[in-house]
Amino acid sequence: MAAETSIQLTQSDELAERIRARIQDERLTDGAFFMTEADLAEEYDVSRTVAREAVSRLVAIGLLEARKRLGLIVRRPDPLRLLQLGLPSLFDSDQDIAELSMLRYVVEMGAVDLAIHNGSDEQCQRLCELAQEMETAIRSHRPEKISELDIAFHSLLLQMTSSTLIAGMQRVLVNFFDTAYQDYQSDAATGERMIWEHQELAAAIRDRDSNRARTMMQMQSRFWLDQKPTDSK
């Protein structure tokens, strides 16, 4: 039975990839009718179980939608949703957390120049205001407000790139790291460092100073590159 299940899963994976390639090759758009599950099994000469497994995989990633009495409809997957759904499975692995930290680092470092080039004066001003509000929250010892403002600060920074995908990816990552480090307690020195780094980064972006902004982002990134996540269990 185990061997049979293994074969079915392998066939299902192969069929799912063939379906994905066909959708891409035929340039089927969002909302297009594909075929029924029964037609799928017949055309590809597989069992209904294999066809159902393959469809389930593609439904899970948002590439297909199964409708009763109609069949399979092509959908456009949301990469940000896939990232968001996949992150919790990486929560307990220090190595995976380290990989995600490096991903966030690359995204934010690459975003600095884009934010400087594409960000409006109003957005730059708002970034400076958020840095000032963070100082008030830190000096008032309001950890929840600090977290809220930090997310708002970095989300705005990524919005300034004018890329919906980059901004969305970073929002998912920032929210993930905020959850992972939710019990982290900073001391007075760390609080002062956070104030200075956020204000200097905001000022560098406002002044359109790429070199200074990248330096400040490197310094700020040390926190989530060096810290280990909170054990949520």
UniProtKB/TrEMBL annotation:
The keyword Metal-binding does not apply. It comes from the Bacteria. Keywords: DNA-binding, Transcription, Transcription regulation. This is L-lactate dehydrogenase operon regulatory protein. Residues 9-77 form the HTH gntR-type domain. It comes from Gimesia chilikensis. GO terms for molecular function: DNA binding; DNA-binding transcription factor activity. InterPro entries: GntR_C, TF_FadR/GntR_C, Tscrpt_reg_HTH_GntR, WH-like_DNA-bd_sf, WH_DNA-bd_sf. SUPFAM superfamilies: GntR ligand-binding domain-like, Winged helix' DNA-binding domain.
